Amino acid sequence: MHADLILHSGTVLSVDAAFSTHAAVAVRGDRIVAVGSDREVRDLAGPGTRTVDLAGGTVLPGLNDSHLHLQWWGLARAQVDLSAAGSLDEARELVRRHAAAQPEGGWVRGRGWHERVLAGDDPLGPTAAMFDDVCGGRPMFLEHFSAHGGLLNTVGMQRAGLTRATVAPPGGEVVHDPATGEPTGVLKEAALQLLDGVLPVPTATERQAAVVGAIAELNRRGITSLTDPIVTPEMLRDYVALRREDRLSARLTTLLHWTWPSVQTPLGVLEEAMRYVGSTTGLGDDLLRIGGCKLIADGVASLGTAWMSAPYHHEGTCGALVTEGADDAERVAALHALVRLLHRHRFQVQVHATGDRACDTAVDALVAALVEDPWPDARHVLIHANLPSPGSIAAMAEHGILANVNALVKWQAAAGLVGVITEEQWHRMMPARSMADAGVVVCDASDAPITDPDWRLALQMLVTRVPRGSDGPCGPTERLTREQAIRAWTANPAWQDHAEHDKGTVEPGKVADLCVLAEDLTTVPDEDLHAVTPVMTVLDGRVVHEG
Fold first, then answer.
1. Backbone phi, then psi, for 280, in 5-degree steps?
2. pLDDT digits (tens, 9 = 90+) for 176-189
């Protein structure tokens, strides 16, 4: 039988075990049927075959963003983006322009701010007053770049009922001015719950339209698979509706979560969910499936909420786990109990951990569950994996625990951590090469909307480790090879998805999920990887983007 699509005269990176390269690939229906030389593959052409001359370009497996908050990113695309603001004045001007386009009395929404940009070295940090005069009397909420906090203006605080008497829920903090006792407008971690019922909620139609638009943009960038790591019941209903209407043009793996916007998952809530959830890892089909569940162990270093073994230079505190408990021992026990419960119900467990103590504690909990109740194919995941110790890295390799790191977050946020954590920690943060060399399966992902989901810049950061605004590498010994970096966006996420037999490589029999680049990716200099050009994206043998 003839092929439906042939891509020839280029470099086909199979990303198979040998990382072999070919000149051409043929597709029939939804499957790859051949890879090889131009002559071998073009022999499969028939009267109805579409042939595409790659002209020296590259074919990759469809990219897999293995940690991307799909609906959040889709909705955030309509908000003001402060991630590129280099000063408070720039941030204020961006907010002013956005606010002027909003209806009278409507909320001004944005995200992506960094504390060093807004407040510099002021120990009080960002405050509501910084934006009061640019919002036109409208309430404002700006989400921190990490999504683990946010800033209200004065009208926003009034709408939320925040006063000097407001107490944060467990696992959260309402920041107060130590001189006056008044709230500054900053909420951290579980304190975001105080905005439930305050911020406007988009309709199902608006949410679903945002998702469809976001996937279309991902297709334009060559992405054919993704994992949404916090999927509430409402979000899952949206995704199921889109799947039924055949409106998903990417493979979507979901991690179930029941308590967001709280970062804390009480054991009682999880026990109740397990009694009624009626599913497990792997339920679904080739376009929408349940991958597992997400737990959150701690916060983020930039807010001083990641659990560290040494105090932050700027605060003198060490952060803490955000699980239930009155002290560290109780919170550690709570994390173990949560992991054990999900593991027993055969959910892949993915744990957010950023501080060194949080990383080691999360690995301990995952290993304990695996030893107590062996499940060889669990493939549990340490999310972010910023500072695991050498002992934890060895344990991850031994027990098949994956690392899901975020090169784009490091590229974007590294400068803001100078003077917050130690210099040694700053360089070691995200030890991708140490983990890969130890035998840990390393995936990289954008964590959008924390960053813009640009896998090209992520590859560049993985192989150079030169963050934004820096002249040199941050932790040069942790640079990945180009092959390792490409695997972190293709074959390795397929393994995380328990889908390595179907996707992640360009091999006969695999689904025809492909990304075509105009350039030869093997010869592009490291510092130019961010500028390679996706020109075609194929999902299931269908062209979902071309141009």
1. -155, 180
2. 999 999 999 999 98
